[in-house]
Amino acid sequence: MNKIKATSLITIFILISFLLTSCWSYKEVNDVDIVMGAGIDWDNFKNEYIITFELFSSSIGEKGEKTAKLLQHKGKTLFKAIRNIVEKNGKPAYWPHTKVIIIGKDMAEHGIIPLIDYTMRDAEFRPDMKILVSDESTAEDIFLKKNDSKEIISTKLEESLNYQGKVGTYKRVFFWDLTQKMYQEGYESIIPLVYNDNTDKSSITRISGLAVFKKDKLIGTLNNHEAMYYLFIDNDITNQAFVVEQEVDDETFNICLEILKSKTKITPIKKDNNITIKIDIKTEFSIVEIDGTIDVIKENARKKLERHTEKKIEENIKDLISKVQTNYNSDIFGFGNSIKKDMPYEWEKIGKDWDKNFPNLDVEVNSHVKITKSSLLSKPHKIAE
Q1: For the chain, which has fewer Cβ within 10 Å, the N-terminal or C-terminal residue?
Q2: Which of 222, 250, 265 lies at the terminal end of a domain, its last residue?
Q3: What residues contact 319, with CB distance under 8 A and at least 6 apart?
Q4: What separation in angstroms does the CA of 198 have from each of 37, 79, 201, 204?
Q5: What is the structure's pLDDT at 146?
Q6: Are residues 162 and 33 in the same domain?
């Protein structure tokens, strides 16, 4: 009986505890403005920061929608610029719900260490914020170019970033991932690019391509095609569409494949007293579309398509690595980090001069492709004569 009483008391205590718990940083919604996204720009002429906030407004629109508003201010430091916005707005900025931070090009070229330093010191910043670099003139341009005044750009960008696995032209980067890579030896950072697509009648904000960093500074970009092959190396690609051209009887056909799964292994090896990076990529595809009546389902034709696909992957990855080595000298692939982990004694010899050694690093790429499915069809379409 006493045991039952004790159990009942403990259960009641736990239930009451849940009812009485509260967050130490709890704030009334009406007392703060929730920062959904922020743009960080740098004024090269005045040497000051320009901060743009996209704030979630506690007021409700005419049709009951959530609304957003933009606020902007300048300051010699990030903290001062943010405080100037708070003074102007009359409410404190609340960061725990921030979706994205967009870095302007001038800011990225100036250096992002001040941003990292400030956000790491402030307990309100979440490490799972997504980071973007504006491919427009400024970060502010991304927030200004919207078709609907009630549209919350930050939320749309977060949704797009969450669909990275279906797109394959950029890599989602969290704040914690950026800071981790920036302080690792033999690893440089990349951040996805965001831009305003004005090709249609209305402007659409899109994410495509990658910004390449050296230390904390932007030094170049990769387009969406190059970004896809970066994802192969980074072992972070799946579900993407992959188009291969196949020539049959002097006619060229497009075959669309879907990446079912891909596994990349990076291994540093020593050859003739030199370090070589060996990249092995195993990829499984399915056929989703054939532009014509050619038969690539039969074993011989399928094997030919597999070899052709392997060659395409190998050539494009080699081209990408060569471009990054020659134009940017930035080890965004983490080859140096792989050497440090697998061959620490060798890294001690070459790590201190990695800026000189990386551009001359030999890289071998081996692609292994297997086409396992052809969706619901086992034969090509044939039109009756």
Answers
A1: C
A2: 222
A3: none
A4: 22, 34, 7, 7
A5: 65
A6: yes
